[in-house]
Write a structure and sequence with these properties.
0% strand; mainly alpha; single chain; 2 domains; 17 helices
């Protein structure tokens, strides 16, 4: 990573970034298709449940997702680091033991809180808490294993199952007459369990599957000691990120605003989940490539190339969602869900920044500087909580959330820029791409504002779709001509 960016690395970077985007497309493609399925089914769910009922489900997801991050003690991040396969298998065994113990301890903790009368989710959902944490730990472990083995197709299939099966199960359970909250939670947990089973079955069929039978306890202890920074540092970074990314839901649940929580949860399902899955896929592929021997020379050029491509794609696309998203969502969901469009409109400031910087934010882990990510996540958490707590005293709720999203996006962009500098890159080569992305975004914004003023409301949706096609075509054209390699 510290190697200078020389001209000899440019062809390798171009080929590497092409392979990078191909693997990312396969890895996130399943999730993206699943997200499309979920979006198509969202109008059905919105007509079977109320925002209040969906809000209780959203609160369950938020409160269980935070401890689920602890499932593997973040040892799954170390799977791609050892050179020997036996060592990687030992780490998988560590993750399996950690997952089972974490699921048990988390469930007992929730049960104790329920006895004291402070549990924000229904008491009957405690078994689903155990299943959620256990399924999350298994899925994340095998997901990292498959990515390192470059088995991105099985991972893509599992991601498709995870994102698409949840609304399908929820609708089936709702039609069967099961209570709204029960059906939503059971469908969500069932999709998590089944996606893990899909990953296990596919890996057993195409290989390689981790053979845990031959793992010895001394090997596990040795790997735990070698990569102890993950449970000691990285896990707290992940917890801080999980809390801060769900801070609005926690804030709304504290004030018992279930309808607003339901609208926010629906916006997360329609907009945030696909964006975060794509960002996660970008980061996972980049982390796996960055930890391989021999990639050091090309890695700096590759992160620069990828960052430029993401700027050209994501910034204008975020503008399209900002202007056209609320209209499309209101048509989809029907009456009673008007707040979803508001959340979707403004959260693009945060989500766009997350996707853009997702590869660059892996640099601290590649360079064994996990404390850098921890410092950023703690700063982000403190700032977000400060906005929600302090801002709630002086700002209306909608202005408070707008400030939350804009500041979050700005912080992520600044952190991404810092990570690029940490990799040894100068920010000067990226300046022209930033200007191009901003100019394209302004043009798109002007077009959409004119359409919004002079055409019927529904016309903004097809025009926005055409703008997205043009944005992708422009970005791919620039990349193919090699303009992204100018330094």
């Amino acid at each position: 990573m510290s190697s200078p960016l020389g001209t000899s690395s440019k062809p390798a970077a171009r080929n590497g970034s092409g392979a990078f985007f191909l693997k990312t497309a396969i890895l996130s493609g399943g999730a993206a298709i699943g997200a499309v399925v979920a979006a198509l089914l969202a109008p059905v769910i919105s007509r079977l449940v109320t925002p209040d009922q969906f809000g209780l489900f959203t609160i369950f997801v938020a409160y269980t997702a935070i401890p689920a991050i602890l499932a593997n003690w973040r040892y799954e991040l170390a799977i791609s680091l050892p050179e020997e396969n036996d060592q990687r298998t030992a780490i998988v065994a560590i993750c399996a033991a950690a997952t089972l113990s974490s699921a048990t301890l988390v469930t007992l903790g929730f049960w104790a809180v329920d006895i004291m009368g402070y549990l924000p989710i229904p008491s009957w959902s405690l078994p689903f808490v155990f299943a959620t944490v256990l399924a999350h730990g298994i899925y994340e472990t095998l997901n990292r294993w498959a990515i390192h083995a470059e088995r991105v197709v099985p991972t893509g299939v599992a991601k498709f199952t995870l994102t698409s099966l949840s609304p399908i199960l929820q609708i089936c359970l709702l039609i069967a007459g099961i209570g709204a909250s029960s059906a939503l939670i059971m469908g969500y947990v069932g999709a998590k369990i089944f996606s893990g089973l899909v990953l296990i079955i596919v890996l057993l069929a195409v290989g390689p599957f981790p053979r845990l039978a031959g793992v010895r306890l001394p090997d596990m202890i040795a790997m735990m000691r070698r990569y102890k920074r993950f449970p000691l540092i990285t896990v707290w970074s992940s917890v801080a990120n999980a809390i801060s990314s769900r801070a609005i839901i926690l804030f709304l649940s504290f004030f018992l605003l279930k309808q607003e929580a339901g609208e926010y949860g629906m916006a997360m399902m329609l907009v945030a989940t696909p964006a975060l899955i794509i960002g996660q896929a970008l980061g996972q592929i980049f982390l796996s490539r960055g930890t391989r021997k021999g990639d050091a020379m090309a890695l700096q050029a590759e992160v620069l190339d990828i960052s430029k491509m993401l700027l050209l794609l994501v910034v204008p696309a975020s503008v399209v969602v900002f202007f056209a998203g609320p209209t499309l969502i209101n048509y989809m969901l029907g009456a009673g869900w008007e707040g979803v469009g508001f959340y979707a409109k403004w959260m693009v400031f945060w989500l766009g920044a997350v996707v853009i910087v997702s590869p660059a934010t892996m640099v601290p882990l590649i360079k064994d500087r996990a404390e850098v990510d921890l410092q950023f996540q703690i700063t982000l958490l403190v700032v977000r909580l400060g906005i929600l707590v302090g801002g709630s005293l002086v700002l209306p709720l909608d202005h408070l959330f707008i400030l939350f999203f804009i500041v979050s996006g700005a912080l992520f962009l600044m952190y991404g820029a810092y990570c690029l500098r940490l990799s040894g890159l100068s920010l000067r080569p990226i300046a022209s791409t930033v200007l191009t992305a901003v100019a394209t975004s302004l043009g798109v914004a002007i077009i959409l504002m004119i359409v919004d003023q002079v055409a019927p409301p529904y016309m903004i949706v097809p025009v926005a779709g055409l703008c997205l096609v043009l944005i992708m075509s422009l970005a791919l054209w620039r990349w193919r001509r090699g303009n992204l390699h100018s330094a």
